[in-house]
Amino acid sequence: MRDVSLNPIRPAATEAFQLDDPALIALASGTMRLLVAPHVGGSIAAYYEAAATGPVHWLRPATEAALAARDPLRMGSFPLLPYCNRIRDARFEFDGRTVDLAGDGNLFAHALHGHAWRRAWRVGARTASSVELHFDHEPDPHAPGDWPFRYRAMQRIELAGDALRVTLSAHNLAERPMPFGMGHHPYYPRTASTRVHAQVQGMWHADGEVLPTHLGPHPAVDAMREGMAADAFDLDNNFAGWSRSATIAWPDEGRQLTLTAQAPFDHLVVFAPASEALLCVEPVTNTTDCFNADDTRDHVGGCVLMPDEQIAATVHWTPQRV
What we know:
This protein is mainly beta.
């Protein structure tokens, strides 16, 4: 196995892949390319190698139609905060109050993925291979379902050699404690040969509305240890006891992408539906509906940020030829 970032001989690159959107930020490192869409929820639109034979995509690339629709769900990856995945009925109790998120423009039955992915992010410092994106939330007491805590978030998105590195951070600017979770939602190219490798200890089983019911064994837990086919199960589930490393492999193409994450990205979501050729392997800090869970924080993740408290963690995606 060799890391592509260590390969001193590179083919002549071609710029065959183009997305015609002037708001995109283009980053480069060697033959690696990254397109960032701050106006589409602070998303990554594409991460690929500009190889002599054409672009090699490590994340599923956005399309012109996805950019025109400003649809984060059709980007390469997008940030999740101030919580990950669903909150049952879009409400929870916290610090003696009901937090009701219904009516904030989220069109799902249960509040989904927070709100920052549905807002534009502000562009900060830039270099040829990196960009900082900023998101400031000031709650509007007159807006239905608005997140009632003031906070600031930042993404530092960069190419470190051939690897993609994203650092997410948040700062509680409210005068009271704030419940919080974060993650990133990457989509990967999915083919008949795609495999997912990860060390996990258990799976959160879910009901028909993709809300967790219990933590327990599942054949996918053992399958991922050996390299689970993306087509093996119908999955939209959280996995516990994750080692904070996972690899998405395309053995027929002789390549793989390894995801590594810092704490508190201690939970993993695998979305591999039977009905669509989609694949997400997501580093997150909390399980679905963690704010309503009866389990301990150690089991469901998430945290409470005290006034003026900050949190930051980094995720890497490292491509390899095998």
